[in-house]
Amino acid sequence: MRGVRPVPRDDDERLGALFDAHAAPVWRYVVSLTGDRAGADDVVQETLLRAWRNPRILAQEPSTMRAWMITVARHLVIDEARSARRRHEHPVADLPEHARDDDTDALFEQILIEEALSTLSPDHRAAVVTTYFGGRSVAQAAVELDIPEGTVKSRLHYGLRAMRLALQERGVTR
Asked: Could you tell me the CA-to-CA distances from 8 to 52, 65, 136 in Å, in that order?
């Protein structure tokens, strides 16, 4: 084959020595991290291949070389754990039929309204809550609050105006 050079015999021996010296400890380390014996074989193979391709590492002391290999193996395990294949993510063509609405927006709106209502005077707040949130007419609110209908209308007008300002201060309305 063109472009592929045969591995010299002494390289075969050095590769065998590299495997004999480091494969078992690296494999045990990877198994201790993952618990996956078959996957550990792949990580060890890739680690040894990276060491073999790095002449600076091959020239190091055996203890330094082992530390480098352990680090490379750890990074390979982390990369595999982060990959989509490991997380079993599979794209789907169709979305699930029953999507549930998120109640977060409604909760935030409720909090903003409660804060705006808390800025009103007690009389204005009672008129707004009774009519708008209580679902009562002006006449019904007047009876319930024991005040004239004109007063209910006035308190509604000024209460809603104050609420609009409070909401504007919170960036809700224009």
From this structure: 14, 22, 95
- How far is it, in rounded angstroms, from Cα 19 to Cα 16? 5
pTM > 0.70: no
66 and 124 part of one domain: no
Q: Report the percentage of the chain scoring pLDDT > 70.
A: 85
pLDDT above 80: residue 84? no
Instruction: Give the model confidence (pLDDT) of 1-59 as tens digits.
Output: 444 444 445 667 777 888 888 889 999 998 888 888 888 888 999 988 888 888 787 77
- pLDDT the model gives residue 7: 42
| Residue listed under structure tokens 């530390």 | 67
124 by Cβ neighbours in 10 Å (0-12 / 13-18 / 19+) ranks as buried
Q: Is residue 36 part of a domain?
A: yes
Instruction: Measure the CA angle with vertex 59, ends 54 and 61; round to 5°.
Output: 120
Both tokens of 152, joined, read: 């209910």
Looking at the domain assignment, is residue 138 inside a domain? yes
Long-range contacts of 36-42 (CB under 8 A, 24+ apart): 39/80
